[in-house]
Each structure stands twice: as C-alpha cells, then as structure tokens.
Design goal:
The structure is a homodimer.
Chain A lengths: L7 E6 L3 H10 L5 E8 L14 E3 L12 E4 L7 H9 L3 E4 L7 H15 L2 E3 L8 H12 L3 E7 L2 E2 L1 H8 L4 E10 L1 H8 L8 H4 E9 L5 H9 L9 E6 L2 H7 L5 E11 L4 E11 L2 H21 L4 E3 L14 H7 L2
Parallel strand pairs in A: 1-2, 1-4, 2-3, 4-5, 5-6, 6-14, 10-11
Antiparallel strand pairs in A: 7-12, 8-9, 9-10, 12-13
Amino acid sequence: MVVSDNIIRIGIVGYGNLGRGVEASIAQNPDLRLVGLFTRRDPAEVKTLSGVPVHRMRDLERLRQDIDVLILCGGSKDDLPQQGPQLAALFNTVDSYDNHSAIPEYFAAVDKAAKSGNNVALISVGWDPGLFSLNRLYAEAVLPEGATYTFWGKGLSQGHSDAIRRVPGVKGGVQYTLPVPSAIEQVRAGGNPALSTREKHTRECFVVLEAGADAIAVEQAIVTMPGYFADYDTTVNFISEDELRRNHHTMPHGGFVIRSGTTGGGASQQVIEYRLKLDSNPEFTASVLVAYARATHRLRQQGQSGAMSVFDVAPGLLSPRSPAELRKGLL
Amino acid sequence: MVVSDNIIRIGIVGYGNLGRGVEASIAQNPDLRLVGLFTRRDPAEVKTLSGVPVHRMRDLERLRQDIDVLILCGGSKDDLPQQGPQLAALFNTVDSYDNHSAIPEYFAAVDKAAKSGNNVALISVGWDPGLFSLNRLYAEAVLPEGATYTFWGKGLSQGHSDAIRRVPGVKGGVQYTLPVPSAIEQVRAGGNPALSTREKHTRECFVVLEAGADAIAVEQAIVTMPGYFADYDTTVNFISEDELRRNHHTMPHGGFVIRSGTTGGGASQQVIEYRLKLDSNPEFTASVLVAYARATHRLRQQGQSGAMSVFDVAPGLLSPRSPAELRKGLL
C-alpha cells in the first residue's frame, strides 16, 4: 500500500534509551525509514540495533537533503534547550521536552527558529507531556464543570532514583512512584476531592548500602529529603546488589488522567479516565515521538511552519491510514 | 476574558433528550450562546429549559445570518440522512451520526453539500463514534503492533430495550449491556486474547409483564431473539411497573477502549486504556457536540469547508482557552 515515494526519512539525534526506543519503533512502521543516527560520541564506538549509519553531529548539515524529520532524543535539562532551536532552524523536528514550567519559553525559542527555516517543530511529545496533556484537554473541553487529576505510576522515577544514589552510604538504588489506590477510587467516584501531595502518591525505594553504612541514618536521610521525599510517605527497602540488578533493571511507568464533571445542571456525574500501563517508559515515549514524526512531515507538506504541540495536530495525521480508511475502519 | 465579538451563536435542530442535553451544555460554556431551537412540532407546545426562542424548521433559512453553527440532534435512522446534507448546504453543522457501517456514504453526501455552501460539517461526533474513535486512532498509531478492544457498558441500550418491548406479553422494559469483567482483565493483562461476542458482553433485561402473560414464554422469546440476544448470555428479571419507573428511568452508559501492544521487538507490553462512566449518555454526547461546535466555527473562520470527522480536528480547537494558555496550563 505504501509506495516508496511516500517513505518518510527519519534521523535520530542522541542514542540513549530514548534513541534506541525510536530506532525500534521505526522498524514497526513500514512508511518510515531510519536513515541516520547522530551522536556526540565517536561513531565508531556506537553499536546500533539496526546497523543504521552513525554520524557525528557536525555531519547533520551536510545530510539535510536526506532527512525529512529529525527526532531529538536528548535530555530536557542540558540538550534540548540548545539543540531544539538550533536544529529546528535546519530540519523538521520532534522532541520530548518535558520541563513543564519552562515550556512557554522553550516554545518561543523553537518557534522563532522553525519559522526562520520554514520548518515544523513539534515540541513536548511523549506521554506527559503528550498523551496525558491531550486527555486533560479533551476532558476539560467536554466537561467544563469538573476537576482533572493526574496520577503517575507505578513507575520508576529517574530523578528520585538519582537523588537516592547521592545519599552518603548508598551504593545503588531505584525509586518507584505509586498512586494511592484509595485516592484514585475517590476521584472515580466523583465529588472532586481535595487531595494533598501526600494523599495522591507514595514513594518506594530499593537501596543497596555501601559496606558498613548505617541503614537507619540512610533511611532518615532519604525520607526527610526536601523537594523529593519529605512531602510523601516513603518506604525504604534495603536489598542486595544482586537483587537490584535482577529485579529493578527495567523502566516501567504509567499513570492515570481522570476528569470527573457534571452535566445537566449538576444532576449527572460523568467520569473520563485515561490510563497507561507501560513495561518500558522510554520505548513508549519513543513510539509516540515516531507517530508524531509522521504528522510533522505531513504538516510541513501542507505548507505549515513554526513550533507546535500535540494540541495543534489533527489526530488523523498520526496514522499511516488515509482519511477514508480511518473513517471506515476506526470512526 | 471572552469578549462579545467572540461569542459563537448556536442553533439546535430537534429537541429530544440530546437537544435538551445540548441546551444544558451550552449554559456551561460562556463563549457560546444558544440563539434558537428548531423543531417539527408546534413551537407553542415545546417547553424549553432555558426559555430560548423556539422556531419551526422552515424558519431556519430566514435566520441564517444569526447562527454560526447548527447542532443537529435528530436520529441517525430517519432524521440525519435527510437533514445532514440539506442543512450542511446552508449552515456549519455538527451531528452525532452513529450508524458506523454507513458513515462513508453519509460523509460523501454531507461533504458535497457542505462544499457547495462553503460550510464546515462535522459528522459522527459524540463518544462512539467520537471520543472512543479518537482513542482507537491514537492508540493504534502509537502502538502499531497490538490489538484494540472496545467494551460497552454498563449502559442502557435503546435499540435492545425497544426490541424487548416488541415481544408479545411485555408491557415495558429496559436492557443493560454489561462488559464481562474477566474479559477486560484478560485484555489489560496483554496477550491479545481472541474473544467471541458472548465472551465480551452480557445483557441484562428488566421486564414488566402484561397481565396474564406467560413469563417463561416471554423469557424464551427474549433470550433466543436473533440479532439482539441469541449470541449473548442474557438475564431476564421480571419487575413491577412501579419498580421500572423508579429504578430504570435514567440513561447511564460508558465503556472501555483498550489497546495492548508491544514495543522494543516484542520485549515490552504497553497498555493504553480509555474509560467513560456516564450517568447520562445523552447529556455527555451533547457535551461533546458542543465542544466540537466551537471547533467547527473556528475551522470555518480559518477558511476550511466540507465534511470532517473528529480525526480532522486539532484538539486545541475544542477549548475556549488560547493556544498559549493551553501550553502553559495543560501541556
């Protein structure tokens, strides 16, 4: 069905967990082709899953004509604030910028660059921001009188795992964020409860101690850590290094967006719930990026340019199927 | 924040449960104003919730300049196949056409009319088709390797309730469709089970008998009815007329769209679930129509015309908030 003229040529910038997820996801989409991978490392030292050519970052400009959309797989803290605007001036781009509070500023910088290069740059794509944002928007638009709740987990939090590992006496560890089941039940039941931070999520840590470290002191340092654990009920479990390696090496995540609202002058309670249960957070985020890469190419083909978010993209553009097929098969 | 120049003027065609739901929903949206209601009945005999002017259908053409978007609240069997194309030639329209198998044909007829009048006509808006369709599309685009399941209920089915009431010996009755909990659990657990019609849903009937009717014969007639009940496990409960009136007068509904798929070469299971739990099916459908009426007006303002579905509408167009507010508040 897909003819080669319609193949969308993708480049990946950055090859960590997310970049590897994008590489695997592209293989699931016959209308997309991965043409190159760009890294700050020595290309000779990068081993890919697919055997795709690996280039240095400086080769990007030379390969401009070979790439329809560039998927930026760097981090939101250090990589994207630089790369986002810089590369949107040269390519159509998709990124997963997830520093929620700085999105307006990031959008402005990318928008200016994308417009200067006549490119489309889709920012903050993934599941939160991304699919969760979409569900907050749809639910609020449909039920203007109500409240929206976002719960995360059960999932591995990279930031909180890093915080644990900085505690003196800790050799290794991971942290899982868990939604409180009774809070979810309260929200589902309607009535829009006021829930504190502590009432919505708990935190569970699995920690490997350094030889001779004081377990009680480590536990105290973790559960009282401001900004990370102090506002939560936190459980600390001490485990062996072997157990950490065996049972805590995957990156599950997920969560819930629930809006409960009323219609008919308050007579009827209506509940909208969206839920993700993910074995692999980076692979899922990558899959969302890849679907939006298809949309990005099509938006550019329509003559659009500038920065956009998932809110600006008509859902049909994400699918390889034609509008008529979608109406017949999925509407 | 909303200035009067931006008020979107809405007309309602048809005043049953759905039309009343639209009237109530418009009152929840300060940027929309209901300017008139159009009915085939004698306007003098129609009592509205809001006191909005009631007109005859033939007044529609005269009031063209006063209406930005017309929400069509008639049925899919007899009303919309006529009214959809006819009114799309004169107005921007939104409807809830829900005869899934005839959508391509209906789309073509409405598209032709809307283009002739330079209008935007949004068809098949609601929750299924509508929000459920969107979720099938997003989930399939993000997880191309997997399977999508739609479960309905617990909810009152109008068509099946009508079928019960046609059985000789039945004075009144309602039918609820229920998803099978173990089937939902199987789907959530992944593995994409093959589920028969009988394994996905059960049907529960509450029936009032005519005086002297044979309960066993009525039950047999119901549970063996082809096309309605024969393929399902159906329970028939006999109740009093009073109980029917007291406990079965509301129109709850809802359901689930669940897609389970794999990423990373099959290594990771990813599950996306969307769920609605609705006290009032018509009020919720109406709320979706109203949000899409806002989008319809904006699409026309952008210079678009023709028939469209929810797949063609960028999510941001549904919200009264500006793109910058949405990025800051919901992304």
